[in-house]
Amino acid sequence: MIPIAEIRAAQRRIGPFVKRTPLVSSGALSERLGTRVSLKLENFQKTGSFKPRGALNEVLLLDSGVRARGVVGWSGGNFAQGLAYAGGVVGIPTTIVMPEGTRPNYVAATRGYGAEVELVPGVAESLAYARSLAADGRPFMHPFDDPNMMAGNGTLGIEVVDDAPDVTDVFVSIGGGGLIAGMAGAVKALVPGARVWGVETEGAHGMRLALDAGHPVDMTPTSIARTLGAPRVSARALEIVQALVEDVIVVSDGAAIDGVITLLERAKVLAEPAAACTVPAAEKVAGRLGSHVVLVICGGNVSVDDLAEWVKE
Length: 313
Known about the structure:
single chain; alpha/beta; Rossmann fold; 2 domains; 6-stranded mixed sheet; 4-stranded parallel sheet; globular
């Protein structure tokens, strides 16, 4: 488990460099789900997602001598931007390896935050190349499988409970598991009776596969929710999910896109499919929900081309 003391320490550590994002009520979703619904708008975080929280905690905990060498990361999604931002804040060189085929807006944003980006064919090949770069003594920053990363992400859970002490249910998206591991640790420590629900999309349902198998399972992500596309979930996160999470709900890509449209039209919030999938997931268990539901909108890095493509489909 990720101790609440470590999550609170992370909150103090990263506090000067991240936004305290708002928690807002949604009348439309409350009516739709038949209970009070609030949205934790982490899409308003620095870089457009929750990722700077964990990345900053990892980087700030490095020994100053190690930190001076710079860091290496690997990501085709939001962690690339989060780590690039963290590197810029701390003032260290940051190299991010990204798979070829990563959406141009992600690549451009990562470079915009000051990171050097190297594009390598293939997911497995790009990860192997990133690890090889770290062989020169630079720390390799994993996008989700690190306890310091999880503690940083857990600060989001503290904010949810601070703003909604009566929370009964929290819906959190799962990629590799770094967010839900920290969130579950914080929420369950502060409100033991609250339920944490994990959400995945078909084709990015690595945690559901791992739960069913009893261990992490390799998979080739195919979901439109690209930022959930981890090829294998964290074994550490799996243990935490097994212990603390009520259930992991899998929804279709189509349902996730419907969630994007619902949030945009009814809440005026632009969310990624990886975040908007929490809407149909909550609908699936609407009859089991308590009196105050929080949907974590974990990211909003969507391009106009993305929206046009989804609406056309």
